[in-house]
């Protein structure tokens, strides 16, 4: 079983395409949508966890890219500036996936990118402004 | 044969520090030592216990003299990077407060406000050596004719820059929860509805004022670690309340003592003086503070031997009670429980969230320990001790 957190950005021409249904029906994938927005100019953003057989996942992503949707691996989108983070732990109040957690007994704040759903709540909450949203272009290939 | 009770003076301890013979331990280490050997033996063996804390501390700020201009100016309004500073002091003296937001900040008009830049950030930028834009306006006088100035300043060029925090190092603080059914945004962090999380802010057994609960060694002139350099306690902080209810060990069970501190901004580091914001609340400054506690006798050894299991605070509802000004304790918890990750509250497990950095607190206690061990930092005698209460 293969599971990845991805963001899909699609132009307004794709907004009416039943992409989720197609991912389920044609590629046997399951999904868990964490965020879905249509912006004023009708381009859309969906953040979801996509789960299934690795091969199916890859084919599904190929299908999405084929119809002009930008697929980005979300796990890498949220970054922590380790110089700015002073390890308080305030972020752990809002992190829904446990990607930010406290290691005891040291009380160090750990950030596990793999578990991050890119909800960005930590970006808003961090007192030190240490959490950033950034897109790593090299991950798109 | 009864042994003589240990009694040392600060002068004697300083002599040992100068000889490189002083025995210095952190408050974490002292907890184990007192537990293992007892307070009397610990008092004989240990000379100084170092403490530390690093957390957002409101009621912080800096006095700055930005130097006379040509022609001269008596500033009436001053902004540093767009953050208003108080100018009603003299011609070019200002006070920049940590919680002052940038003048163009949308505040909480879109709730929760982000408060990404304020007085605390200005202070951090100065300490980091960054250029800060100073704007001032004035009404003009015969001796100070100039009516405005707009220039870049850096800390090294300033004639005078003194961190002076009216209230730091709170001895104990509330554990905050939210009993409403909506998320709230407080100075204690984000509090999820229906007691979704319990936030607390302390370094517990490492916290300075937990290690000298009656302020027996703390007063005007006590030399401390402040912002990465030496600073001083200059008196009780605002809201200093020694009369708070105390446990059997003498330690307050709710917010109690505070200290007013000062130190030269020019010696500080942005690692220990860090601008912060609390979402939906505002700006502040995270301050690194460490106080050395001289182990003058068995009593001080006993106090510094306190552990997180023996330190308690009260749970306060920041959703209903606190904003009404009617905070009542909904329960008592130990810092050991708070640090464990969950507390039991009204029969439910509630995740706990620290807003004070334990990692940084440990680092401060160790730095101070090293300074003292190397003879770089001598203890001072308080000239006017902090107001206190009768000991239990």
Question: Overview of this structure, please?
Answer:
Chain A has 141 residues and is of the alpha+beta class. Chain A has two domains: 2-68, ACT domain (Alpha-Beta Plaits), CATH 3.30.70.260; 79-132, 2-Layer Sandwich (Alpha-Beta Plaits), CATH 3.30.70.20. Chain A has helices at residues 19-27, 54-66, 121-125, and strands at 2-10, 30-38, 44-52, 70-73, 78-80, 100-103, 108-111, 131-133. In chain A, α1 runs antiparallel to α2 (54-66). Residues 136-141 of chain A have low confidence and may be disordered. Chain B has 392 residues and is of the alpha+beta class. Chain B has eight helices and 24 strands. Chain B has helices at residues 10-18, 27-37, 39-45, 119-127, 298-304, 321-324, 335-340, 358-373, and strands at residues 24-26, 48-50, 53-56, 61-65, 77-80, 83-85, 93-97, 132-137, 148-153, 160-168, 175-177, 184-186, 189-191, 198-200, 223-226, 229-236, 259-264, 273-278, 282-290, 292-294, 312-317, 332-334, 342-345, 348-354. Chain B has a domain at 61-163. In chain B, the strands form six sheets. In chain B, strands 3, 4, 7, 10, 15, 16, 17, 18 and 19 form a nine-stranded antiparallel sheet that branches. Chain B starts with 9 loop residues before the first helix and ends in a 19-residue tail after the last helix. In chain B, β18 (273-278) and β19 (282-290) form a beta hairpin. Helix content of chain B is 18%, strand content 30%. The A-B interface holds A 86-90, 92-94, 102, 104-109, 124-125, 127-129 and B 54-56, 112, 114, 116, 189-192, 197, 199, 274, 276-279, 284, 286, 339-341, 351, 353-360.
């Amino acid at each position: 079983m293969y599971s990845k957190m991805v963001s899909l950005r699609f132009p307004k021409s794709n907004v009416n395409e039943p992409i989720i249904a197609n991912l389920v029906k044609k590629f046997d994938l399951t999904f868990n949508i964490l965020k879905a927005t249509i912006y004023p100019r009708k381009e859309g953003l969906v953040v979801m966890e996509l789960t299934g057989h690795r091969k199916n996942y890859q084919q599904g992503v190929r299908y999405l890219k084929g119809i002009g949707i930008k697929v980005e691996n979300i796990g890498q989108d949220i970054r922590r500036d380790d110089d700015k983070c002073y390890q308080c732990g305030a972020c752990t109040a809002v992190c829904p996936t446990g990607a930010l957690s406290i290691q005891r007994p040291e009380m160090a704040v750990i950030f596990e990118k793999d578990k991050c759903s890119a909800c960005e709540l930590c970006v808003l909450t961090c007192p030190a402004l240490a959490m950033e949203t950034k897109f790593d272009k090299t991950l798109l290939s | 044969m009864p042994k003589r009770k240990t009694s040392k003076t600060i002068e004697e301890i300083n002599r040992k520090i100068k000889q490189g013979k002083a025995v210095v331990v952190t408050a974490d280490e002292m907890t184990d030592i007192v537990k293992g050997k007892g307070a009397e033996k610990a008092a004989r063996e240990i000379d100084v216990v170092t403490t530390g804390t690093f957390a957002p501390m409101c009621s912080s700020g800096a006095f700055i003299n930005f130097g006379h201009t040509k022609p001269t100016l008596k500033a009436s309004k001053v902004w540093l990077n767009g953050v208003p500073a108080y100018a009603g002091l003299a011609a070019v003296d200002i006070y920049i407060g940590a919680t002052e937001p940038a003048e163009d900040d949308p505040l909480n008009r879109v709730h929760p406000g982000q408060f990404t830049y304020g007085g605390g950030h200005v202070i951090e930028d100065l300490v980091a050596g960054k250029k800060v834009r100073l704007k001032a306006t004035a009404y003009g006088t015969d001796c100070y004719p100039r009516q405005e100035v707009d220039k870049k300043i850096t800390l090294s060029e300033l004639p005078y820059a003194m961190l002076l925090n009216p209230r730091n190092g709170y001895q104990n603080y509330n554990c905050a929860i939210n009993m409403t059914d909506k998320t709230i945004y407080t100075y204690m962090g984000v509090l999820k509805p229906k007691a979704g999380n319990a936030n607390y802010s302390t370094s517990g057994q490492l916290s300075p004022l937990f290690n000298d609960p009656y302020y027996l060694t703390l007063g005007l002139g006590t030399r401390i670690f402040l912002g990465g350099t030496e600073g001083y306690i200059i008196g009780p902080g605002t809201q200093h309340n020694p009369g708070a209810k105390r446990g059997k060990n003498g330690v307050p069970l709710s917010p109690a003592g505070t200290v007013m501190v000062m130190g030269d901004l020019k010696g500080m580091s942005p690692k220990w003086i860090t601008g912060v914001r609390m979402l939906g609340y505002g700006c502040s400054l995270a301050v690194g503070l460490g106080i050395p506690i001289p182990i003058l006798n068995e009593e001080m050894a006993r106090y510094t031997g306190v552990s997180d299991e023996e330190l308690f605070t009260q749970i306060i509802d920041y959703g209903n009670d606190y904003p009404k000004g009617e905070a009542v304790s909904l329960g008592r918890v130990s810092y050991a429980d708070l640090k464990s990750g969950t507390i039991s509250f009204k029969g439910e497990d509630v995740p706990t969230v620290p807003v004070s950095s334990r990692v940084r607190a440990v680092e401060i206690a160790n730095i101070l320990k090293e300074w003292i061990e190397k003879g770089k930092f001598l203890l001072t005698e308080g000239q006017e001790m902090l107001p206190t209460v009768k000991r239990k």
